[in-house]
Amino acid sequence: MMASVPTEYGLLLAGTLFALGLIGVLVRRNIVFILMSLEIMLNATGLAFVTAGARWAQADGQVMYLFILSMAAAEVAVGLALVLKLQRQFKTLDADAASRMHG
Amino acid sequence: MNTVFYIAAAVALISTMMVITRLNAIHALLYLIVSLLAVAVIFFTLGAVFAAALEVIIYAGAIMVLFVFVVMLLNLGPSATAQESQWLSPRAWIGPAILALVLVGELAFIIARGSLRAPAAGAVEPKQVGVALYGPYLLGVELASLLLLAGMVGAYHLGREWSVEVERQGDKGTRGQGEGQTGK
C-alpha cells in the first residue's frame, strides 16, 4: 500500500492555483487571458473537490468534479463566442473596450 | 507516491504562473495544457483515476482545442503568416516541453514501479462514481445536460449572428441574396 498524499497539501495546492487564476483575472486585460484564468480557477475548484473526495474515499467529490467540468465546457463555448463578437464589434480584445453598456 | 505528487504540484504551479505572465496567447495555451496534465497526474496520485482520465480527455483535449481554434480565428489577416511563424519558433516550445517531459518521467516511474494497478489509499473506482452519478445525483446529471444544451444553443446563436453580420457587410450590393440567406 502506498502512502497517501496529505489532504492539506492537496487543498493548499488547490488554493494556490485558485489564487493564481484570480490574479490572472484581475491583472490581465486581454479577454482571452481572462477566460484562461477562469479555466484555471474552475480547475482548482475541481481539484479541491477531488481531494476532499479522496480524503473520505467517497465518490461525491468526483461527481462534483464532473459537474464543474460540464459547466466549464458550457462556459467556454459561450465565452469564446462572445470573444469572437467582441473582436468583430470593437476590433480589439481589450476587455475595457466593452466596459460601457449601450442598451 | 508522495514524491510524484510534489513534483506534479511544482509543475502545475510553475506552468500556471507562466500562463498568467505570458504575453502571447498561444504560448500561454501551451503552458495551460501542461498545467492541466499536471493536475491530471495529481488526480491519479489521489486515487481518482476517472477524474484524471476526464481531465486529459475533456480539459486538455476538447476545451483547449476550442481555445486554440478561437485564438487562430481571431488573427485572420495579411500579417497572420508572419505572426504564426513567430509563434511557432522553436524557443517557445522549450519551456512546455521540459515540463511535459517531467510528467512523462513520472508516468514512466509509476509504470516501472508497477503501482499502476495497486489502488491508492483513498482510491475511488470509476464504478463507484457511475453508481453515485446515476443514483442520488440523477437530477444533477439532468440539469448538467440541460446546461450543456443551453451552452450549445447560446454559442450557436452568438456565432450565427456574427456570421450574418459578416454576410451583410460583405455583399451590400446584392441585397436580395443576403436577405434570402438571413431569412432562412
Describe this entry's structure for a reader.
The complex is a heterodimer of chains A (103) and B (184). With 103 residues, chain A is mainly alpha-helical. Helices cover 75% and strands 0% of the residues of chain A. Chain A is elongated and about 50 Å long. Chain A starts with 6 loop residues before the first helix and ends in a 13-residue tail after the last helix. The mean pLDDT of chain A is 87. Chain B has 184 residues and is an all-alpha fold. Chain B is 81% helix and 0% strand. The C terminus of chain B is likely disordered. At the A-B interface, helix 1, helix 2 and helix 3 of A face helix 1, helix 2, helix 3, helix 6 and helix 7 of B.
Provide a brief overview of the structure.
The complex is a heterodimer of chains A (103) and B (184). Chain A has 103 residues and is mainly α. Chain A contains three helices and no strands.
Largest sheet of chain A: none
- Using only C-alpha atoms, the radius of gyration of chain B works out to 22 Å
Q: Count the beta strands of chain A.
A: 0
Q: How many whole angstroms does the radius of gyration of chain A measure? A: 17 Å
Strand content of chain A: under 5%
What's the N-to-C terminus distance of chain A?
62 Å
Q: Could you give the order of the helices and strands of chain A? A: HHH
Mean pLDDT of chain A, to the nearest integer, reads: 87
Helix content of chain A: over 70%
Task: Please indicate the percent range of residues of chain B in DSSP E strands (runs of 2 or more).
Answer: under 5%
- The outline of chain B comes out as flat
Structural class from helices and strands of chain B? mainly alpha
Oligomer designation? heterodimer
Unreliable residue runs of chain B: 173-184
Question: Which bin fits the share of residues in helices of chain B?
Answer: over 70%
The topology string of helices and strands of chain B comes to HHHHHHHH
Number of DSSP strands of chain B? 0
Uncertain runs of chain A: none
| Annotation field: number of helices of chain B | 8
| Protein chains sharing the most extensive interface | A-B, 62 and 65 residues
Q: Mean pLDDT of chain B, as a whole number? A: 81
